[in-house]
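Customer escalation, tier 2.

The customer says the design service returned an amino acid string that "doesn't look like it belongs to this structure." They asked us to rerun it and document both sides in this ticket. The original structure tokens are below, unchanged.
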């Protein structure tokens, strides 16, 4: 029997899908603890019993949207891996930045959820998080910084997390940064990408070049 999430995916115009879409936005804006099922029902325009009928308790709905997001991100990484295969490291980095930044820019609630809820210690332990650790290892492998998930160094993980942190803060902080830059949304997206490439590509490619030619010990 299909799960509520599978039913929502199969019918994007269904009530389940509408509730899920609103829940993603509100959980992104207010975090797990700051969002109530009453808030979600009110935004959808339904009564609370209808929400419970379609999704159950608050934690059930949250777990479904985290599953949805984790699987979405996994698909983005598969696309990165498909496009970067057999390309030089510079091109790999640029492609990864483009794809991931585009995804997060289209789904800002994902950045908000990662930043808000990943560092929120007051959430119930049973409430799941977005799988940043797994995604970090996937990036390391795609960028040829590791041969397998078992061989990703602490240094490589830390550097990829630094990239994640930059991207997430640029996306979540758009309402703060964009007025300072005095640019429209599309220009802001372009500027984010160019800035990330300016900082990240030379850092990663310099390290790789030094390792290749034995400059570093």
């Amino acid at each position: 029997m299909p799960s509520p999430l599978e039913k929502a995916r199969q019918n994007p115009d269904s009530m389940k899908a509408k509730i899920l879409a609103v829940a993603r936005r509100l959980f992104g804006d207010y975090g797990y603890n700051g969002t109530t099922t009453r808030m979600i029902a009110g935004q959808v325009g339904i009564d609370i019993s209808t929400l419970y009928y379609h999704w159950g308790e608050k934690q059930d709905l949250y777990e479904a949207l985290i599953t949805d997001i984790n699987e979405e991100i996994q698909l983005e990484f598969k696309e990165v891996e498909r496009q970067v295969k057999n390309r030089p490291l510079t091109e790999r980095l640029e492609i990864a930045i483009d794809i991931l930044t585009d995804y997060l820019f289209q789904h800002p609630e994902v950045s908000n959820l990662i930043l808000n809820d990943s560092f929120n210690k007051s959430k119930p332990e049973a409430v799941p998080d977005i799988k940043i650790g797994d995604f970090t290892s996937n990036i390391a492998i795609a960028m040829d910084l590791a041969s397998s998930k078992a061989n990703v160094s602490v240094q490589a993980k830390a550097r990829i997390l630094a990239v994640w942190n930059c991207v997430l803060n640029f996306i979540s902080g758009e309402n703060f940064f964009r007025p300072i830059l005095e640019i429209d949304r599309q220009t802001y997206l372009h500027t984010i990408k160019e800035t990330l490439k300016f900082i990240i590509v030379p850092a990663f490619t310099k390290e790789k070049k030094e390792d290749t030619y034995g400059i570093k010990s």
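Tier 2 assessment: The sequence is consistent with the input. The radius of gyration is 19 Å. DSSP finds eleven helices and no strands in the chain. Sent an explanation to the customer and offered a walkthrough call.
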